């Protein structure tokens, strides 16, 4: 599987998580069950998208593109890093709002959740339209293989053993319920 195929697959998983978050945010009212579901979905997103997926891009993929020295790649990766940072800030704020929320807390989470979803959906569309083709253009087969191996190694550093499988199983469980 190439870098492009791997990232496209991860983007598909992220989009499923975004759909689940949207579903939870659209639910009327609150209550312990909704709050538990919201907490679970946010934690899945934080670990899979913000920590692991973005972590692999920032540790391995972006530096490799930047190493090639083309200005278009450096400009794109700088923009994508800013979007990662904005997404992480929104995620932290949503998670901070969860415990012991007062009456206005739900609206705050809905607002931040909507901004997070808008940002991340646009981010993935941009990566699919600009970043993935750039990888295909700039990486020869050997570089693609080496970057994929380094991204797999980074994933083992970023996630606990078996955590990715648990995340995907939990996504499947929550999506079917």
What does this 3D model show about the protein?
The structure is a single chain. It is built from six helices and no strands. The protein is globular, with a radius of gyration of 17 Å. The two termini are 31 Å apart.
Distinctive features:
Four Helix Bundle (Hemerythrin (Met), subunit A), mainly alpha, single chain
Can you name the CATH architecture?
Up-down Bundle
How confident overall, as mean pLDDT? 92
Cα separation of the termini: 31 Å
Strand content: under 5%
Largest sheet: none
At the first level of CATH, the class is Mainly Alpha
Shape: globular
- Which series of helices and strands comes N to C? HHHHHH
Question: What is the compact description of this entry?
Answer:
This protein has 177 residues and is mainly α. The chain is 86% helix and 0% strand. The chain has a single domain, classed as nmb1532 protein domain like (Four Helix Bundle (Hemerythrin (Met), subunit A)).
List the helices and strands and how they pair.
Elements: H1 3-26, H2 32-67, H3 71-97, H4 105-138, H5 141-158, H6 163-176
